[in-house]
Each structure stands twice: as C-alpha cells, then as structure tokens.
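Structure ticket #2291
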Amino acid sequence: MGLEGEESAEKKMAQNCLKFLKYALITFNFIFWLCGGIVLALGIYLMMTSNYGSLLPNQPSLSVANTLIITGTIVMVVSFLGCLGSLKENKCLLITFFIVLLILMMVEIAMSVILLINEEKIDGFLLKEFEASLQKYTHSNATQGTEDWDIIQHKFMCCGVKGIDDWNGTVPLACCKESNCANRKIYWQEGCYEKLKQWFENNYLNVGIGIIVISIIQVLGMSFAMTLYCHISKSGIFFQ
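Resolution: structure written out below.
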C-alpha cells in the first residue's frame, strides 16, 4: 500500500505539472493572440491613414504598415495554433505549433546574421532610397510623401536627408525650429538620416533585450508544446 500510495502521489504530481503547462500555454498564447490583433489593427490603420512606404519609393512593399500587418497576422495564426492545440490537447496542432515556432526562430537567426553581415550595404541602400523619396516629392505635387517627411523632420528635429540643402530652397515648415522661418538660422541643420541612425544606435540595447525575451518565450512555448505532445502520445490521457 505504501508503494502504491507513493506511485499514485507521483502520478498525481506529474499530472498537476502537465496541467500547469497546458493552461500556461493557453494563457500565454491567448495574450499573444490579442497582441497580434492589436498589431494587425495598427498596421491596417496606418495603411489607411498614412503611407510610410513613400520613404522607400523603389521598395513600396517594405512600408511600416505592411510590416505590421504581416507580423500581426503571423503572431495571431501561431498563437491560435498553440492555444487551440493546448485546449483540445490535439497532437497535430501541437506539433504544428512547435514546427512553426522552430521555423520562425531559424528565420529570425538567419535574418539577424544577414543584417549583421550586410550592414554597410543596407546603410547605402536606405540612404539612396531616402534621397530618391525626397527628390520625388520635391519635383511633384504629391502631398502624402511630404506629410511623411514632415512627421519625421518634426519628431527628430532634422531637415532633409543629409541637411537643409536637400530641399533646394523650398524648405518645409517642419524644418523650422520656430514658427517664423524668415531666417535660415532657425532651421534644423542636421540631416534626418543621421538622426535616424543615432536613434537606432541609442536603442540597440532595448532591441537586444526585446529579441532575447522573444527568443526565451519561443523556446518555452516549444518546450511546453513538445512536453504535452509527448505525454499525450505516450499515455493518451487527457487532463480536463
């Protein structure tokens, strides 16, 4: 009776642990599903109200709105797989969730390596795109591109790509330090491209912490999903 009691207690403890993993996986995936929905909604909103792809005229698909929409959709789909697979204890959904997370992690690592290796090429590419964007909207009657430039110049307190001369004398009000632009000295002199680079450099630590946190969550998600999958495959017991 003593051995049977100990075995029963150990089995109950194991089941409780697996229940915890199951409901933790459901909770976290539901939270990320909601976050993915918010990101998707934000991307749709930006697509309808602004066009930050105008800053990359030769690559319009790389707009902020498109990036948010794709990211939000992926997060929602993956989170749905994990949440439903855990809730129903479905082996097919759990293994699919694991494989998709593994693929996403491999893609993230590959993209990080590519960006690190081609940092100078990307720098030159972005500079040319910004210059092409500014030239396009200084030689046309389009308003959307200038609106996007106004937002950047006002927020980062800069003017043009490399400096105020990029506007060829038609300097927008967003370049002004004050409301009155009668004097050239009250314009922001520093170019927006260098300001953007400085902003990204100052936020490297935050970006690194974010990537590490996301990687840890992905690893935990894969571990929880595989643990549930293996237990269901081995015992066929469901924990309702």
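Closing remark: The two ends are 28 Å apart (CA to CA).
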